[in-house]
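User: quick one, fold this
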Amino acid sequence: MMDASNTLLKRLCSHVTGINDDRLASHFHMAVSLLNEGHSNVMLKDHNVVADRIKRRLVREKRIDDAARFSSLMNRLLKSAVLRNKTGILTFFLSLSQENSGSISTSTHTTFENGLCNGHGNEEVFPLPKLHNQHSDRKVHHEGALPSTPPPSSLTSEAKEPKSPHTPGSSRVSRLAAIYKASGAANVACETRQSESQPHSPSTEQLPLRPVTPKKGLKKDALIDVTEKMLIRDVLFIFQGIEGKIIKMDSSKDGYRLDPKVRLSPGQKEIILKLSDVGWLYSQVKDFCEWGGSISGNDRMADRTAAGLVNQSLVLALREELSDYCRLIALLEAQIQEGGDTPLGEPSGGLTLRRLVMWTLEPRAQLRALAFLTHAARKVYGGACVSSIYQHLHHGNPGHRAIVCKVLTRASTPMYVMLTQWLLDGALEDPHHEFFIAADPTVSDDRLWQDKYSIRWSMLPSFINKSQAQRVLASGKSLNFLRNVCHFRAPIAGREAIKTALQQTTVESLFTQDENSQLENLIGLTFRETSCHVLEEIMTQHKLMDHLRALRRYLLLGQGDFIHYLMEILSPELDKPATNLYPHNLSSLLETAVAASNAQYEEPDILKRLDVRLLEISPGDLGWDVFSLDYHVDGPIGTVFTAECIRQYLMLFNALWKDKRMEMILSDIWKEQAATSKLCRELPELGVVLHGVQLLTQEMVHLVHQMEYYMTFEVLECGWHDLMTELKTAQSLDEVIAAHNNFLKRIVAGALLDAESKEVRTHLRTFYNLIQNLRALQERLAHTVSAEVNARKNAVLEIKARTEAGDFGTSTDHQEIERKRRKEFTSKVVPKLKSDLRINTQTYQDMVQSFLLMLAQHDDENLHLLSTRLDFNEYYHRRDHRLNQRLTYHHKRKSMGTSFCQ
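Assistant:
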C-alpha cells in the first residue's frame, strides 16, 4: 500500500511540475514532507470547512457533476484509516486549484486563514434556535449583510519557501508549499486559542462610527467601520433587552437585525447574532415577569394578583434567576475596560466577542430553561400551572432539571401551604381558586359531607394521584365535619402526630415522591387519624347502629308484632278515602301500636323520630295507598341517612306494606270462606263455586307467602348481613356511606323496584288487583249464600207458622213464587258466580304463567329460585313448554344474543 501511495504522489508531482526525469526526486521529497505534517500544525476538525469551500467553488464554476463526485470521494476519504492528515490533503488540493486558476494572492491567503480559524467559511446567517411549541416563530436575523473585506496581511516567514534553483518547476512547487504552510500556521493559531476554552476576537480602540472613504468607481453610500468594544457594548445592551446602535430590534419579526451600513466579517456577524439569542431569551422571561404571570396574555396593565399565588411565586423565582443574570452583565461591563484599544482583529487581553460567547454559555442554557417554563405557564394558573412546570422536570440534562426543580419548588410553595392548612385544621384559604380542593359556601352543614367540598380536577397537580387527592379531601372534610356538624371543639387525638409529620415534610416532597415518600406518609397518617375519630364519634356518640336497626325494624317491617297490631288498628281508618285522613289521628294510633307491642322498649330518641306520613294523594286513592311510616334524621346521622336514602326506605316500606296488606286480605278471605262453607251445605249448587274460590285463594296465598319469604330472607336478611360485615371493616365515613348505599341498592333491586324490573313490578300490581277482585267475589258469594239460606229458612218458618195456626202450610201461589225464586237463583245467580270465578281464575293463571317466565329469564339467580318455588309441582311447566329449565336457559341465551346484536 505504501508503494502505491508513493507512485500516486510521484505521478501528481510529475503532472504539476511537468518533469519526468531524475529531477523529480527533490520535488517528491518536498511533497512527502508537506503531507507528513503532524497534528499540531493542522486542526483535525477543520476538514469539513475545507471540503465545504471546495464544493462551493465547484458550484460557483457550475461544475455540478464534479461537486457530486467530490462529495462521494470525501465520504471515502473520511472512512479511510490509512490517511490521517485529511485536512492537510484537502488544503493542498484547494491551494492547488487556486494556483491553477491564477487566483492566489496575499489577500486570498489571509481570508482562507480567517475562515479556518472561525470555522464558518463564508456563511453569513446564524438563525437562533427556536423554542419548541412557542406561541410564534421567533428568530434573529440580519439585513444588508455584505461580504467582509478583511484587512490585508502578509504570509508569515514560516510560510515562505525559497525557490528551487535546480528544477524548472520549482517556482510553482515552492508557491504551493508556501500556501500550505500558511494554512497550517493559521490552523495552529486557531487551535491554540480554542484550547484555552475562551475563543476571542481581538479588541481595538473604541472609535466613533466613521465612514469609509469611497474609492473610485464605488457608490457614495460607504460602509462604516466599528470597533469590537462598540460591538460588545451593543451586545450587552441586547443582553438587557435594550436596542443598540448596531443591533436593532425588528418588531415585525420578533427578533434582532444588524445595521446594513456597518462593516462586519461573516464570523463577527455570526457571533453577534448568536449572542443576540441570549437577549431574546432574557426578554421573554422578563416580559412574563412584568405581566406578573397573568393569564390575560399581553395585557400588561392587568392586575398582577389576578393570576393567583402560584403564578406570583413563579414570577418571584424567575426574578431571582434574572438577578443572578444581571450581576453577570455588570461583571461583563466592568471587563470592557480591562483590554487595551487595539485594531479590530488584533489580540487583546480584555473582553472579546469570542470570550463573551464562552461567558454566556451557561446563562444561555439557564435562560432557555426559564423561557420554556414561562411558555408552559402562560394561560394557566394554580395547580394547572404547577403541572405544566412539572412536565419539564423529566429532562435528560441535569442542569435543566436543577433549574426546573428550583423554580418548581418556589411555585409550589402556596400549594404546599394550602395543603398543610387543609390537612392540619381543615382550613381552606384559596381566594384565587388555585387549590385542587373546592368549597361551596352556599351548601348547608347537613349536606357538608356530600356537597360542600369536592375535588377541582382541573387544578390537581400531575404529581398527586387520584387516590391521594381523595384521601386529602376526606381528611380535611372530616375535620370540618367534626367541627361544624358534630360540634366537636377539642383537638383530635392524633393532631400532634400530624403536626410532627408536617414539620418533617418539605415542598420538594410534593414532586419527588417514591414508595416511602414524606407526602404519602403524611397523607396516610392524616387520613387514618381523622377518619378514625369521625367513625368513633358517629358510632358511639350518635349511635349510628341503633338508628340502622330502627329503620330495619319499622320501615322495613322487621318488628312483626308492632306491624301486625298497627295494621289492625289502622284498617278502619285506611279503608276510608285518602282525603278523609288526618295525620293527628294516625299519629295517635301509632302511639297505641307502640304501647301495645315490644316497640315500647325502644330508646326514647328512636321513638321520638318515628312518625307517620301521608304521600301525595291522587283521585280515587284510599288511605292504604297514601299511608307510610316515617323516620326523622338530622345532625351527623343525616350524613349517612340522606334524603335520597330516606326516599328509598319509604319506597321499600310501601312495597312491603302492600305485601302485608295482601296477606291480611287473603287471611280475611280465608275466614269468610270458613263461615260460608258451613252455609253452603244447604246449597249444593254453590259447592263448585265455593271450591273454586278456595282453590284460587290457596294459590294466591302461596304466591304471597313465597314473595314475603323471598323479600324477608333472600333480600333483606342477606343484604343486612353483608351490611354488618362491611361496617365492621370500615375505616372511614365514606366507606360506611358506601356500604349503606350498596345495601339500599341491593334490596331495592331485590324488591323489584329498580328500572330493570319494571315489567315484573307491573305484574305484581296486577296480582294485587286480582286479590282485590277475589275479595270482592268472596264477599258477593258470602252475601248470596247468606241471602239464599235466609230466604229458604224464612220459607220453612212461614210454612211452620201457618201449620201451627191451623191453616194449610202453603198454597199454590206460594209454591209458585218459591219455585221461581229458586229457579232464578239456580239459573242466574249461580252461573254468574261461576263465570266470575272462571274469569278470575283464568286471568290469575295466565298472569302467573307470564310472571314465572319473566322470573326465569331475569339476571338475578334468586328470582330463578323464586320461580321454582312458585311452581313447585310444575303445574305451569306442563302448561307452557317455555318454562322448561333447559328451554328457558336456551331462550335466555337467545334473548341475550339478540340484545347484544342490536
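User: anything notable?
Assistant: The first strand starts at residue 210 and ends at 211.
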